[in-house]
Amino acid sequence: MTGEPLSAQPPTCGAPRPEIGMVVLQPTAFCNINCSYCYLPDRSNKHVMAQSTVTRLFSEVFASGWCAHEIIVLWHAGEPMAAPISFYREAFATIERLRPSSVSVKHSFQTNGTLVNDDWCRLFQESNVGIGVSIDGPREIHDRNRKTRSGKGTFDKTLAGMRCLQKNGVPFHVLSVLSNDSLADPDGMLAFYIGENIDKVCFNVEESEGTYVSELFDTPRAELRTRFAAFLRRFWHQARASGKVTFVREIDQAVPRMFRPEGMPARNIQCDPLAMLNVDSRGNVSSFSPELLGMKNKDYGDFLLGNITINSLAEIYANCLESALWRDIRAGTRACQGACEYYSICGGGSPVNKLFENGSFTGTTTSFCTLTQMVPTDLILEAYDRLEKTWIDNDPATIVPASSPTTAEAAALSPRMP
Ligand code: SF4
Predict the structure, then answer these.
(1) Phi, psi (5° rounding) for residue 147?
(2) For residue 365, how far is its CA from the centre of ligand 1 (angstroms)?
(3) Residues in domain Radical SAM core (predicted)?
């Protein structure tokens, strides 16, 4: 153990008590491929997180008393399988040894799938790891952006990885970044998933982040909203009709947020201090949107709140509460609360998108929230209105997924990363 002694008490009297729901860990910044829209600035760096950093981090997290009863540990930001299997065996054992019985932990990988083999599948099964594979659709769409470092398409390798997961009985979902071409072809996208026996699908619309500027996000917002709504409406209804694609994240995560018990707030873990704890391979810590980790900005510097190898979690939390980052994110959330009719579903949006799209955390509407919050909400209400209340009363399965994900599964499916 290094650094300061563990501290379990909130450092600031009267401050909101954090509730850690997700820890996003970067085992290595390195990625073995080179997607054209990747926002990660350090993806050639092969440094791997030290085991002492894992130990220190989870000693602090579990001793804090701030964990939700169920936390997701998402290994991401770089290609997680670029670190060796032995790294994870040791890290998982450490986390399990430190874990209090009152907290359950679900490990999750977001991967490009190109390095999956039988040995990895064994680890995933033994440790019940949730897997998200990034694949953008059929070969001609996927290979346009997801390329090797020498510029070749990665479709064949990703497909081979998915088939290896299927052969070994490892469940997974896919995450597809939608571009101009895929947005225009919901039926073709659905046919691809059905043809590959993929039953859980998440979409990200290609966006401008870091140094990447998306053509799609240059589209006027109203036009993009109309196009995405047309895509999602068609995809959702056809997927339901097929009975083969049973989970469409954009819809199936919005339904329980919309039809939740009276008085239950919609929590947005990107807007609460430390609710998402984001840690890079050298122990640097940030919070809120994970994409902020590793970026720099003239107003906020590097967005870091401390380093877990030298700071206690209580110090990091105190830094967060005093930061301009938190001040401005909170102002943005309050602005949303006062101005937006979707706030009760959304909870304040994605800070990183507010910064990239509007130049400030303090604003409200972005193209991102228009697509991820407003469009799904509108489509669900549209379906509800069309069939009237009897639809839900008589056949809830029509709108609610056959097997709703647990909180942990839903959180694991939620990060919108490439
Ligand atoms: S939908 Fe957009 S404007 Fe509305 S609460 Fe969410 S982030 Fe704010």
Answers:
(1) -120, 160
(2) 5
(3) 15-244
